[in-house]
Design brief:
The protein is an alpha+beta fold. The chain has a domain of 146 residues: Nuclear Transport Factor 2, Chain: A (Roll), CATH 3.10.450. The protein is 39% helix and 26% strand. The chain is built from six helices and five strands; from the N terminus they run ααααααβββββ. Strands 1, 2, 3, 4 and 5 form a five-stranded antiparallel β-sheet that branches. β2 and β3 form a beta hairpin. It is flat and about 115 Å long. It starts with a helix and ends with a strand.
Length: 232
């Protein structure tokens, strides 16, 4: 019995040695088809060996910053009040129906209507959209243009952005300044239809700052254009 037990032990030891050698012969080699460790889209995986890193195309990327400062910066940016936020709150108190987001939507529509109506000489459309002084200036410019026999063609290609940049509350009159960045095609023609200003094939990027005003106690909910200027 002891002899048989000894032979069994020797047999199993030889079998184990054989299996170990086979495993080492397989696991100890690289065939070039091993699965690479996962890694970020840009950069290297942490603690990766040099021969396990697959080179990726270089792309411009921001300089890496520690996580905490970035989180803190974002928190501060979210906490910082927007320009004119205090006055917007005052306008909201004076006129509970006021909503900044809806106001900007309406300002975009008014911008398009005013630009197109001025070019076509449509004073009927302009009148309810403009304050008295601004309407007087626009109407005079239209009359002078027509007296010269000139016509203006304006195509509003796009309004790239519209954002509130300033606010004021003067007594009960609220004023909100909006910066518009638009793409326009402007052409002026003489009485014979010849182009005397602008280029019908050129799209100009224009930045305007328009101020809209409204008496917060008025039953008329409409805002009117009270001033215009070009951004330099």
């Amino acid at each position: 019995m002891e002899g048989i037990g000894f032979l069994d032990i020797v047999f199993f030891a030889m079998l184990a040695a054989f299996i170990i050698l086979r495993l080492r012969s397989v696991l100890g080699r690289r065939t070039g088809h091993e699965q690479r460790p996962s890694r970020p889209l840009f950069g290297r995986a942490p603690e990766a060996a040099e021969d396990n890193v697959v080179a990726l195309p270089e792309r411009a990327k921001p300089v890496a910053e520690p996580a905490e400062p970035v989180a803190e910066r974002d928190r501060q940016a979210q906490a910082a009040p927007a320009p004119g936020a205090a006055v917007l709150t005052q306008i909201k108190i004076a006129d509970p129906s006021f909503d900044a987001a809806e106001f900007v939507k309406g300002a975009r529509i008014a911008y398009e209507m005013i630009v197109v109506s001025f070019a076509s000489g449509d004073t009927d459309t302009l009148r309810p959209l403009l304050a008295e002084e601004v309407y007087g200036n626009f109407a005079r410019a239209i009359r002078e243009r027509e007296a010269r026999g000139e016509s203006q063609e304006t195509t509003l290609v796009a309004i790239g952005s519209a954002e509130i940049i300033d606010t004021a509350l003067k007594g009960r009159v609220a004023e909100v300044a909006v910066k518009f960045v638009s793409e326009l095609v402007n052409v002026t023609r003489d009485a014979n239809g010849q182009v005397i200003a602008g280029d019908p094939r050129a799209v100009d990027k224009v930045t305007d700052i328009w101020t809209f005003g409204r008496d917060t106690r008025s039953r008329d909910p409409n805002w009117r254009l009270t001033a215009t200027r070009s951004a330099h």
